[in-house]
Each structure stands twice: as C-alpha cells, then as structure tokens.
C-alpha cells in the first residue's frame, strides 16, 4: 500500500510539472554535491530509488528517515512552489 501511495504521489508531481510547460533543456555541466541534502534533493533520491524498484519503497523511505506520509507531504509542498520544483527536477537528473 505504501509503495502505491508513493507511486501515485510521484506520478502526480510528474504530471503537474509536465503541465507547467517548464523548460526541458538539459545541461551537461555537473554540479558539486552540497555538504548536506536539501529537502528537494532528499525527495529526489527517494523518488529515484522508488522508480528503480518500487518493491523497495519502504527501504528507501527508511534510509531517508521518512514515512510514506512525510514523503507525500514533501512532494506536494515541492509541487506548490516553482523554485522548489525546479530544484527537485535538477536533483532528479
């Protein structure tokens, strides 16, 4: 059930971002990793892990120190703010 909620939240954010008509230009220059992850980077790491293997969603959440509800709330908060959305998308690359 948790994996299903996470998948729905991830797809909802993806759909929302797709409807925003944002720039899809890809940059080639890698950015140095910050000392600690931002919430957007943390969400991106969890989302990448879930996309890679949805059956291990609970493990990905536990490793990030989040519950499914925490992750879902974070994804909705990110989707509400265009700057945070951009940061999330950059972290997903």
Please, could you describe this protein's structure?
- The protein has 93 residues and is an all-alpha fold.
- The chain has one domain (2-20, 43-92).
- It contains five helices and no strands.
- The protein has helices at residues 2-19, 39-52, 57-64, 68-80, 82-92.
- It starts with a helix and ends with a helix.
Please outline the helices and strands.
Blueprint: H1 2-19, H2 39-52, H3 57-64, H4 68-80, H5 82-92
Primary descriptors:
0% strand
Gist of the model:
The protein is built from five helices and no strands. By secondary structure, it is mainly alpha-helical.
How far apart are the termini?
27 Å
Order of helices and strands: HHHHH
Q: What is the mean pLDDT? A: 80
Q: How would you name the oligomeric state of the polypeptide chains in this document? A: single chain
The main sheet comes to: none
Strand content: under 5%
What is the count of helical runs?
5
- Helix content, binned percent: 55-70%
Helix-strand category = mainly alpha
Please tell me the total number of domains.
1
